[in-house]
Amino acid sequence: MTQPSSLLCSTLFTLVFVCTPVLSAEPTQADYYKITSIPAPDGVVIEGGSIEILPEGKIAVCTRRGQIWTLENGGSYPDNDAKWNLFAEYLHEPLGLAWKEGWLYAVQRPEVTRMKDEDGDGRADIFETVSDAWGINGNYHEYTFGSRFDKEGFIWAPLCLTGSFTANSLYRGWVLRINEDGRMIPTASGVRSPGGIGFNADGDVFYTDNQGAWNGSSSLKWVKPGSFQGNPNGNIWYDFTDGAIGKRPIDPPYTKEGSRTVIERENIPELVPPAVIFPHQKVGNSPTGIEADMTNGKFGPFAGQVFVGEQTHSKVHRIFLEKVNGLYQGAMFPFLEGFQSGNIGLRLSEDGKLFTSGSNRGWGARGGKSFAFERVDWTGETPFEIHEMRALSDGFELTFTKPIDPATAVDTSFKIKAYTYIYQKAYGSPEVDPVTPTVSVASVAKDGLSLKLKVTPLTKGHVHELHAEGLTDRESRSPLLHREAYYTLNEIPE
Amino acid sequence: MKLSSFLFLLIAILSPAALAQDDKVLELGKLTFQSCVACHGPDGKGVKAGDLQMAPTLHGSAFVNSGNSNLLTGIILKGILKEDNQYVQAMLSLEAALNDEQIAALIAYTTKEFGEKRQSPTANEVAKWRKEFASRKSPWKRSDLEEMIAARNEPRLLSDLSYSVYEGKWEELPDFSQLTPVKTGKLEDGLITLDPAKGMKKGFGMVFEGTLTLEKAGKFIFSITSDDGSAIALNGETLIGNDGIHPVKTAKMPYEMEAGTHTYKLLYFDRAGKRFLSAAIRKGKENIWLSTMRNEGQQKENEGYDPIPLTAHQPGEAIVHRAFLPDANPRAIAVGYPEAVNLVWDADTLNLAYVYRGDFMDAASHWNGRGSGSTPLGQDRVITAQGLPLQILESLDEPWQPTSQATTKYERDTENPEETITFNIKHPDYQFRGYRLDEKRYPTFNYQYRNLTISDRFDPSDVNGVTALVRTLTIEGDAEDNLYLRLADTGSQQSDNDWLDIGENLALKIEGSEPVHRQIEGKKETLVEVTGDSTVTVTYRWNTPLKP
Questions:
Q1: How do residues A202-235 score in pLDDT, each as one tens digit?
Q2: Do B15-150 and B154-302 agree at the fold level?
Q3: Where are the domains of chain B?
Q4: What is the rounded CA–CA span in Å between residue A397 and residue A487?
């Protein structure tokens, strides 16, 4: 027993000794992104739901207690004092905010409301009901989230199931689209328990859905109009749509053993698989708000990508999306952690400041504080990260934010395991059908900014979990700030 | 061979029917446990959230191993508060989500799978406990539960405890020996309880008699807390009197006791209102409880969240508060006016739901946990003619349709394809348009009805020094013929100088339109015919001043 362990010790010792001089200090998040907590006024509880940016750079946040606060100097606090103003209060758990043409729209539990301060005292006095075209029955789980306005002037509102299992009120388990005239279009079915809704850089709509019945793991889902998102409990409402999105899809199997999404896609043409799965517990338990980076580099090197809040783990994920054979898919990368409460709302200002708001009421969060409103600033330093992970016919292409050290771009630096989840009526799923493909470096770009991996086999429908442990950047020989990526391979490109 | 013959024997002892039944219970329990796995994990070991746990492991849990299905039912019904960051998640209340059968099965499954000893409560027992826990509005604190377990494990000083229940209305304790009990029985667990009198609607009395066993001699403090009167007799002698009609009140008496057995007798009566009875003996610091109710004065079950009363930011302003509220549909809007008069307007039915006086609202249960809705405070709540306000009546014999509902087949699981659900659906003739606040933040509610635009506004007022609310309904557009507004469907509807009694100490007066009274389907209704571009003014007035 003594010999092998002392051998191990000396090997470790040698490794450390040899490696230390060439490796610079381990990079940390704080080198690239700083989180600043913006305190609420004394005695005020800002359990943040959604965040919107108003003209003149004011920030609006709606809270689970039904208040809407506006904030001045949110981007410059603590250099300038945070000036909070209570614009409206006692709404019914609003979880969506959108500004349009002088009106602030709030998506609250019972309705979409638009508000205006007519007498100029800073408080809204007009509360117009734009639409209340869905049911609520008094169950707390019947949450209503809301997006901002899309290109065509619609707010998208995903409606949580009753008690997160059944659909006992009209359109529970659906995504509705509503415009300023109150026109409502039933748009997609199959929702379980949403955590947020927003757009990618192209303006397509995505929502996050939480692990549970018919959701093996939480994910980012593409709300293709007319699609079925996987949970059949709300499909009874097709009878009430006047054919707005076509006929009701057939049910997935209610059997005890369940099925797989990739199999049921063949049987149920309306079923759109999750674009990006967030492996449960590994990366988080409860994804929330969605925000695309439209800052053209003011928030770091991730322009065009999507950020997703994570409530339980108090984090923000980073998402790369691509469309293959008409379906969205892509990779989730760990991005930011250490927020003080459970992130719900996310909003990135044009000048590159990411605002987050959160609460841990009823659903605990690692941050530990019951609520928080925070701002993330990019320090201007570029972290060494996998920038994109793109599917190829025989593997993946990785791009990087900085040139890599080609000496470390070797087969042993990469490991992939692939797995999927059961598509079933029961709650959640373990990881199943594991595959461990062989991974080799097929080519490295001359500029060091990308490489191709040959992966054998690729498994359609599986999450491909990549670990890139040994890779370093060319200039500073630092390892990746985040070495994992989780690619959901709905389609294998030709 | 040995094992298989043993199994055979077991199967032979348990009838096949019982076994199949049991399988079903555990299967239902396992299915029900799906509601728990997000936090407790499929293996009951608790799901990790990074380096923290979502919820504790159920293996070795003092609660699971308490052997107390009543306690477990209480936990499942009410949930457990998150008091620190030991666990990421609070335990949520499953009261609304699970039926009695599911809870019984869940207890069977979890105690069998994760506990030391399987518990097998029946759905009927769970139903009974559900009623017992009904008054509790908030999740448990861990310390409450630990106390409950400790209470179960504490020494029992009373044995051979029996009770008698008597019916009657008294001002003070009667001579029970002259009366005939309506009910008698034994209390096997040795704890004094008012449970046997649960069904007693009027005044009642109870006598408890048992054997008190003390291991050591010494000075003991006997105490008794009751609403209304009570007394203790020890070895045939009255020791403490706590007699008369009174709120919860404690009486204590120190007494030198011999070691050994003594007869202990407790007398109790309740005339009306709150019922409370607890009894204890203290030697040193700790009370040893002789009763199921605990704590001198307060009944623990009624403790909840700290109240969050809602008050206006500036004096003279109203509060408009949207939340789930009792006695109204989910799209309820409460308004608290500065003159201590309040109302709930229902945006599902586009109508006033009720009025009340005094304090406005407690948001504690709305703003704690996952939010079950707010609690109106105050007094004198009167439910007005609830439901949809307008209808075209071809004849006055046509009944009122106060709700708009639809039914659909709910074939969500192939096992029960014929299940149907009924749900509220928007009436196609109505559209809520929201509200507008004036400078005092008083709202005017707006809605469409067919081709009419209607606004509904309330102003606090007083009539002869008594609180009143003036309601102004403004109708714009050309009204169709035979369109009626329903204003009352309660009370005697007797008029006194144009004041119409609508029950519960509230009267209303209608101006701008002639009331039409009718009796239909056993109900008295007051309607007014609505004409185009008109105003209807209704004053709601309480008959007596607000009690302080």
A1: 999 999 999 999 999 999 999 999 999 999 999 9
A2: no
A3: 15-150, 154-302, 319-542
A4: 11
Q: Is A211 on the interface with B (CB under 8 A)?
A: yes
Q: From chain A, pick out residues whose CB is under 8 angstroms from the CB of B99.
A: none
Angle in degrees, 0-180, between the axes of helices B69-78 and B123-132, rounded to the nearest 10: 60
Model pLDDT, residue B53: 82
The burial class, CB within 10 Å (0-12 / 13-18 / 19+), for A408 is: middle
CATH class of B15-150: mainly alpha
A78 touches chain B (CB under 8 A): no
Contact A254 B413 (CB under 8 A): yes
Mind telling me how many Å the CA of B293 is from chain A's nearest CA? 30
Euclidean distance between CA atoms A310 and A335, whole angstroms: 11
Contact A365 B88 (CB under 8 A): yes
* Predicted confidence (pLDDT) per residue in A347-371, tens digit: 999 999 999 999 998 888 888 899 9
Of B520, B458, B460, nearest to B493 by C-alpha is: B520
Give the dihedral sign, CA B515/B519/B525/B529: negative
Distance between CA atoms of A90 and B320, rounded to whole angstroms?
7
What's the pTM value of the predicted model, to 2 decimals? 0.77
Supply B502's token pair.
């609508």
Q: Which of B50, B324, B424 sits opposite A366 (nearest CB)?
A: B50
Lowest mean pLDDT among A39-48, A51-60, A253-262, B305-314: B305-314
Locate the chain A residue with the closest alpha carbon to B324: A138
User: Is the Cβ pair A126, B415 closer than 8 Å?
Assistant: no
**Which residue in chain A has the smallest CA separation from B442?**
A125
Interface of A with B in 445-484 (CB under 8 A): none
Q: What is the pLDDT of residues A133-172, one digit of tens each?
A: 999 999 999 999 999 999 999 999 999 999 888 898 999 9
pLDDT tens sequence across A395-410: 999 999 999 999 999 9
B154-302 sits in which CATH class?
Answer: mainly beta
Q: What share of chain A is helix, strand, coil (3-state, %, to 5)?
A: 10, 45, 50
The domains located in chain A, with CATH, are 30-378 (2.120.10.30), 385-488 (2.60.40.1220)
Whether the CB of A366 is below 8 Å from some CB of chain B: the reply is: yes
Residues near A349 by beta carbon (within 8 Å), at least 6 away in sequence: A53, A57, A59, A75, A295, A355
